[in-house]
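Justification of computing resources. Each target in the renewal requires a structure prediction run like the one illustrated here; the chain below, 215 residues long, is used simply to show the kind of job we budget for.
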Amino acid sequence: MGEAFNQNHGEEPPEQEQPLPPDGSVRERLLKAAVDLFHRKGYAATSVNEFVSVAGVTKPVLYYYFQSKEGIFLELMKEGRGRFQAIVGRDRSAEAGTLADKIRRFCHETIDLFVENIHIVRVMYSIYYGPPQGGPFVDFDVFHDRFRSAMQGLVKDGMRSGEFREGDAMAMTGAILGTLSIFTESSLCHPDHAMSVEEFDRMLDVVFQGIFRES
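Resulting structure tokens:
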């Protein structure tokens, strides 16, 4: 592992130091430091020295838990992806309520996850939209594709049930996702004037008015 570290980073964990025994609080401190540093400085500009300084640990401790800067970045992405996939992959067919209720609930769960992890989302956006930073590849497009596919499935269910009018399912899905995009963009770019969940719901109601079957 030392040779790989020299090739990739020019840094090698000191052999004379021994890492601490497993400690969840230490691991969480490292992850919190990573979120803060990646958010403020970007992936490429953040060093291992800064991680351990902010977290108050030694380099061998970081190497023990995550092996490298790449390792801690991938762990952040893995944790967020796991919770996201649980929301997207949930079978909503047996849930109570109309299809509109299910879509709204799906959106609210996504918003809750987004708000709770907004600093990690900022890191993801900076990697995705910003210049190449030499970080490990993460297929961010798959997040969007799976979410859109799950949402479109609910829209089609609404058409089959007669709750939604017949039409272009992709366009209807895009209108719903557009309201979510406005919410996320306002939170990321204008935190002092971010859209509230209540405002999001009012926008979603307008979308529903356009896709409900006329009674």
